[in-house]
Amino acid sequence: MSYARKAKNGYYGYASYQDNNGKWHQKAVGHFKLKREALKAAADKEKELGAVNVELHSITFSDYYHCWYKLYKENSVSEISKSRYLNFYKVICSYFKDTKLADLKRSKYQEFINWYGANHAFSSVSKLNGAIKNCVSYAIDDDIITKDFTHNVKLVSNKEREYKVEYLTNDELTTLKTAVVKKLNRYNTSRYMILTAIYTGMRKSEIQALTWKDIDFLHSTITVNKSWDEKKKAFKPTKTESSNRTIKVNRELLKRLADLKANQSVMVFQNVLGTIPTSNALNKCLRSIMKAADIEKQGFHFHSLRHVHVAYLLGQGVDIYAISKRLGHSDITITLRTYSYLVDEYKAKNDTLIIDKLAEI
């Protein structure tokens, strides 16, 4: 039964409805100036809740997840993200089979997380849980379920599966930079891209997408407002909205990049053949340079330079918040989580310094 409750400067409207098990619930419909407005909104919401497609209440978790992906994700995420969502779908199908979405409880979901986490690293478990949590929020809006069964679930992972990125010491970083600069040639733009990654910490696709309009030589900045799809050979949006940013860079990098203007291309790293170096080309070039410089790092690749950039800045005492903004992370917690091993190492060094300084009192 719909009703209205007196509030400051008006009324709150509430709609009543029954769930699959016949249990009654109330749903707030908002704040209104007049009581009749609150009652009408509540009554309309009751009709809406009562008219929910009965078939949705018997839909399986896997089917709903797939529908959610097709409606809200398929046309708005990158190819890599699409692949990840579809892999999660296979996992859900394998574990839950014909389990109805409406029958899922937190304990059942925790068992699933425990099962998946036994053979996966924390980052994988976190991404899976994030996708499902997002999906569940839509299921609540669709009135199929009333509670978020992912709430307060403990994420479990296999520590042996954790991948610790190898990064360079300051001496190794200096050696690498010197080796890169030593044989810079405008016909080989891969080396310039490696140098840019060292100095900016930008993602590969962001560096690939740079045009001369994005570089402000007067104010020493690089603006990131797009990325590059190397398969389709076309521009695409940045990874996230927060990835759109302006990065302050040093004059040495800009001086080196200016050499590439002789290639007379709109895009900074387009070579004389009219192509942008791909992941394979960049990794091959990087491995070649490191081998010649006697730098051995297991599993080191182009993206590792982003980690190297963070490690160097942390080591120089740069604030983690400033680093987070420079990387284009939407939240500092993403930076802390992604580079936790670096932050913990830096914290350990500072703890020792703190104790030493306190001993001087």
TrEMBL record:
Transmembrane segments: none
Residues of the Core-binding (CB) domain: 59-140
Presence of the UniProt keyword DNA-binding in the record: yes
Domain Tyr recombinase: 163-352
Taxonomic superkingdom: Bacteria
Xref: InterPro entries: CB, DNA_brk_join_enz, Integrase-like_cat_sf, Integrase_catalytic, Integrase_recombinase_N, Integrase_SAM-like_N, Tyrosine_recombinase_XerCD
Segment forming the signal sequence: none
Alphabetically ordered keywords of this record: DNA integration, DNA recombination, DNA-binding
Biological process (GO), any one: DNA integration
Gene Ontology molecular function terms on file: DNA binding
One Pfam family hit: Phage_integrase
DNA-binding listed as a keyword: yes
Family: Belongs to the 'phage' integrase family.
Name of the featured protein: Integrase
Source organism: Ligilactobacillus agilis
